Amino acid sequence: MTDQNEPQLTRIQQKNRERILEGALTAFSANGFRGATIDQIAEAAGLSKPNVLYYFGSKDEIHKTLLTALLDMWLAPMLAIDPRGDPLDEVLDYVSAKLRLSRDFPRESRLFAYEILQGAPHLNEILGGRLRMLVDETVAILAAWIDEGRLAQVEPHHLIFSIWALTQHYADFEVQVRAVLGPGHDPFAEAELYLENLFRRMLQV
């Protein structure tokens, strides 16, 4: 929700903010928070350093803005899980959605990975708050399906962790994946078939 007391941005101002965030995504995903500089962000955005600092007071503010938006995007597929749907279909749809996010937004995935590896200094409050609440709600849905005999017996938290790990690997280690597979392979298309088969075999009753 936008604060009514905050001045509305003009179209040019909004465009400049978007350019800065796009430039910051490039810098942070390549160098991490510590390695990226305001100068690098400004260069990637095609703006001057004073212009960047006009819109964002610090590198920290830019980073937190990016991470918050990223987390919203990353959580959307989990929010879409329907407790009234077919359990196996819902889980497989979630796996597929997470893999598509890794395919379509690899820089965002690597930015998130960098943050976690640094101890999540900009996300601790969110990780222990909104994220944990959503995971708890999803675990409750999964546990109910398992208790009803509609999914195989697995530990719900670790099912979620394994989905995260197996899907985001293809973004965070994309260079390695492509190097190992070699030319002529589509890692994400192959991964989708593999992961669907893996989780289907694991979860069907």
TrEMBL record:
<protein>
    <submittedName>
        <fullName>TetR family transcriptional regulator C-terminal domain-containing protein</fullName>
    </submittedName>
</protein>
<dbReference type="Pfam" id="PF00440">
    <property type="entry name" value="TetR_N"/>
</dbReference>
<dbReference type="Pfam" id="PF08362">
    <property type="entry name" value="TetR_C_3"/>
</dbReference>
<keyword id="KW-0238">DNA-binding</keyword>
<feature type="domain" description="HTH tetR-type">
    <location>
        <begin position="14"/>
        <end position="74"/>
    </location>
</feature>
<dbReference type="InterPro" id="IPR013573">
    <property type="entry name" value="Tscrpt_reg_YcdC_C"/>
</dbReference>
<dbReference type="InterPro" id="IPR001647">
    <property type="entry name" value="HTH_TetR"/>
</dbReference>
<dbReference type="InterPro" id="IPR050109">
    <property type="entry name" value="HTH-type_TetR-like_transc_reg"/>
</dbReference>
<feature type="DNA-binding region" description="H-T-H motif">
    <location>
        <begin position="37"/>
        <end position="56"/>
    </location>
</feature>
